[in-house]
Amino acid sequence: MFSVLKNLGWFFQKEKKRYTVGVILLILAGIMELAPPRLLGSAIDSIVAGTVTWASLTKYIVLILAVLAVIYFITYIWMHKLFGGSNLVERLLRTRFMNHLLGMMPPFFERSRTGDLMARATNDLRSVSATVGFGMLTLTDSTAYLSVIFIAMSTLISWKLTLAAIIPLPFIALAMKIYGKVIHERYTLAQDAFGDMNDQVLESVGGIRVIRAYVQERNDEKRFADITDDVYKKNLAVAKVDAYFEPTIRLFVGLSYAIGLTYGIYLVFHNELTLGDLVSFNMYLGMMIWPMFAIGELINVMQRGGASLDRVNETLSVRPDVEDAAHPAEVAKPDTIEFKDVTFRYPTSSVNNLEHIDLTVQRGETLGVVGRTGSGKSTLLKQLLHEYPSGSGTLAISGVPIGEIALNRLHGWIGYVPQEQILFSKTVRQNIQFGLPGAPDETILEAIRTAAFDQDLGTLSDGLDTLVGEKGVALSGGQKQRVSLARAFIADPDILILDDALSAVDARTEARIIDNIRNKRAGKTTLISTHRLSAVEHADWIVVLDKGRIIEQGTHETLLEHGGWYREQYERQQVESDLTD
Fold first, then answer.
1. What is the dihedral sign for C-alpha 95, 100, 106, 108?
2. Which residues contact 73 (CB under 8 A, 6 or more apart)?
3. Which of 425, 427, 422, 460 is nearest to 444 (CA)?
4. Is the per-residue pLDDT at 367 higher than 90?
5. In whole angstroms, how far apart are CA 298 and each of 11, 116, 284, 287?
6. pLDDT, tens digit, for every residue of 217-247?
7. Is-contact 280 40, C-beta < 8 A?
8. Sign (positive/negative) of CA torsion 88, 90, 96, 102?
9. Number of Cβ atoms within 10 Å of the Cβ of 29
10. What is the mean pLDDT of residues 15-19?
11. DSSP string covering 330-389, please?
12. E-state strands within 45-99
C-alpha cells in the first residue's frame, strides 16, 4: 500500500524541509488538542467538588481559548506546507510527463492512445498529488495523532478503560486491508475506461465532418453513450467499495463508545474514575473518530495514488525509439547528404519500405522525389528527421552518420512541411512565428509573399490577427499549406523538406512558390516530394521511387529522354493541364 510513498521518495527528499516542518507542526497541533478536554475535565471535577471560583473558571476559559488560538495558527502553517507540496508534486510530474512526451518519437505515439495519455496527465496526476497532500495528513493522523490520543487516554485517564474501548479497532484494520486491495484493482480499470472515453471524444470531434457527411450522428451518440456507461459502471464499482469505509468505521467506533461509556460508568460508581475523567475520556474517544476515518481515507488515497502512479510511471519508463548520441559528433553545417545502400522498414511493417537507396545531395542543390502513391517518397525524406530506428546502410550528413549527430542540431538544420499540415489554435501571425519566435511583421510578410499567401491574407477578417481555429479549420486546404510553408520559410533552414506540400494549390500558385524558392534559397538544400512533376522540373536531381527502390534518376531532361515512368507521367499531366486550361 505504501509503495507509492517509496516511489515518490525523490520528491520527499527534495522537499525534506517542507514535510519535516509540516509533519512536526501537525503532530504538535494534535498534542495541543489534548489540552482543552483535560482542562474541561478538571473544571468539572472542581465544580463537583465545590472548589470552583470565578478566578479559577476564568483561568480555565482563558487557557482553553489561548490553546485554540495557537492550534489555529499552527494548523494554518502545516496545511500550507502539506497541501502546498501536493500542488508542487503535481506541477513537477506534469512538467516531467510533458517533457517526456516531447522527447518521444512517432513510434511511441503510434502505440499509445491520445485519450489515455490525456487521462494520465490529468486524473492520474491529480490522484498522485492527493497522495502527498491529503495522504500525508491521513498517514500522520492515523498513526502519530492516534498514538498521542491513545497514550493520553492510558496515562492521564485509565489504562483499563482505554484497553477495553479499543477492542473493536483491530477489526477496522482488517476491513481496510480487504477494501484497499479491491479499490486498487477497480480504480485501475476505471482510469483505463476514462482513457478510452477520451479517445472516443477526440475521434468524434476530429472526425465530425466525416460523421455528418455519412449521417452517423446517432450511431456516434450510441457509441459515446455505451462508453460513458462503461466509465459510469466502473467508477460506480469503485464508489461501492469506497462507500463501505465510513459505515464500517462508524460501526466499530460506535462499539468503542458503547464499551467506553458502559465500563466508564462502572469505574465511576466504584470510585476508580472521577466524573471529570469520564468526560475527558469521552472527548478523547470522540477525537479518535477522525483518526479512525483517516485509516480508511489513507488506504483509499494510497491505493488510488499507487494505481495512478503506476500508470504514470509506465509512460515515463518508456525509452525513446531513437535516443540521442552519447557523444555527438561536431558538424558545423550540412554540406552533403549521402545515402549509402540504405534499407529501412517501419516497426509495424512486414516488408522493407526502402531498399538499397544510394543517393548524394550537395549543399545548395534541389532534390525532387516522385513516384506512385505508397512508393516511399515520404519515407525517404523522413530518414533525415531520424524519428525511427535506422535500418541497414549509412545515411550521413557532411560525412558523419546521422546517428552520431545530436538530434537538436539535426532538427535545427531542417525545416519540414509535411503532407498533413498542423496549425495551432492561434492567429496567423503566431502560427508563422512558430518558425522564428518573435519575428517582426516585416519578416512575417516576406515569408508570406514567398509562400504566395499575400493575396489571401487580405481576404481574412483580421489579417495576421485572424484566428485559424483548431488545426486550421477556418482556412482552406491550400491556405493551410501556404501558412505552413511560410512558417518553414521564415526559419530559413539549411535543409528544407517539402513533403507533397503543394498538393492543395493550383498550378499558377505552385509555379510562383517554386520560383520564390529558387530565388530565395540559393546556396541551401531543398528536398521536394510531389505527385505533380511541374514542382520538380527545376530540381538539380530527380529520383523516381517504386516499392521503396529507385527505378529512375537524373535531371528533368534526361528522365524525359529515358522514356520510363517519369516521361509517361509527365506527358499525362501535360495533357490534363491543357484540358484544364
1. negative
2. none
3. 427
4. yes
5. 19, 26, 21, 17
6. 888 888 889 989 998 998 898 888 888 877 8
7. yes
8. negative
9. 20
10. 90
11. --SS--EEEEEEEEE--TT-SS-SEEEEEEEEETT-EEEEEESTTSSHHHHHHGGGT-S-
12. none
Domains and CATH numbers, the chain: 3-316 (1.20.1560.10), 336-580 (3.40.50.300)
Whole-angstrom Cα distance, residue 82 to residue 84?
5
Q: Residue 341 corresponds to which cell in the numbers above?
A: 545502400
Give the pLDDT band (50/70/90) at residue 353.
Answer: very high
Angle at 511 between CA 509 and CA 513, to 5 degrees: 70
Residue 555 near residue 542, CB atoms below 8 Å: yes
Residue that the C-alpha cell 491550400 belongs to: 478
- The structure's pTM equals 0.74
Percent of the chain scored above 70 by pLDDT?
A: 98
Residue 342 is predicted with a pLDDT of 93
298 or 87, which is more confident: 87
Confidence of residue 268 (pLDDT cuts 50, 70, 90): confident
Q: Could you count the other beta carbons within 10 Å of the beta carbon of residue 574?
A: 12
Reported as a single tens digit per residue, the pLDDT across 377-386 is 999 999 998 8
* Pairwise CA distance, residues 507 & 535, whole Å: 9
Residue 486 neighbours by CB under 8 Å, 6+ apart: 432, 435, 444, 447, 448, 450, 451, 453
With beta carbons less than 8 A apart as the criterion, state whether 119 and 188 touch.
no
Give CB contacts under 8 A, 24+ apart, made by 108-115.
Answer: 108/318, 108/320, 108/321, 110/347, 110/348, 112/315, 113/195, 113/196, 113/199, 114/198, 114/199, 114/202, 115/195, 115/196, 115/197, 115/198, 115/199, 115/200, 115/201, 115/202
Between CA 481 and CA 423 the distance in angstroms is 9
DSSP track, 289-336: HHHHHHHHHHHHHHHHHHHHHHHHHHHHTPPPSSPPPSS----SS--E
CB 370, CB 335: distance < 8 Å: no
- Flag whether pLDDT at 340 surpasses 90: yes
d(CA 97, CA 107): 17
Q: Are 309 and 384 in contact (CB under 8 A)?
A: no
Pick from 302, 291, 289: which is nearest to 179 by CA?
A: 302
Amino acid at residue number 538:
H
Which residue, 191, 499, 558, is CA-closest to 368? 499
Lowest mean per-residue pLDDT among 243-252, 405-414, 421-430: 243-252
Phi, psi of 288 (to 5 degrees): -80, -10
- Mean pLDDT over all residues of the chain? 86
Residues 6+ apart with CB under 8 A from 407: 322, 324, 386
Question: Could you tell me if 544 and 533 are in contact, meaning their C-beta atoms sit under 8 angstroms apart?
Answer: no
> What DSSP state is assigned to residue 250?
H
Taking the alpha carbons at both ends of the chain, their separation in whole angstroms is 74
CA dihedral 96, 100, 101, 102 (to 10 degrees): 100
CA 288 to chain centre: 40
* SS3 readout for 151-195: HHHHHHHCHHHHHHHCCCHHHHHHHHHHHHHHHHHHHHHHHHHHH
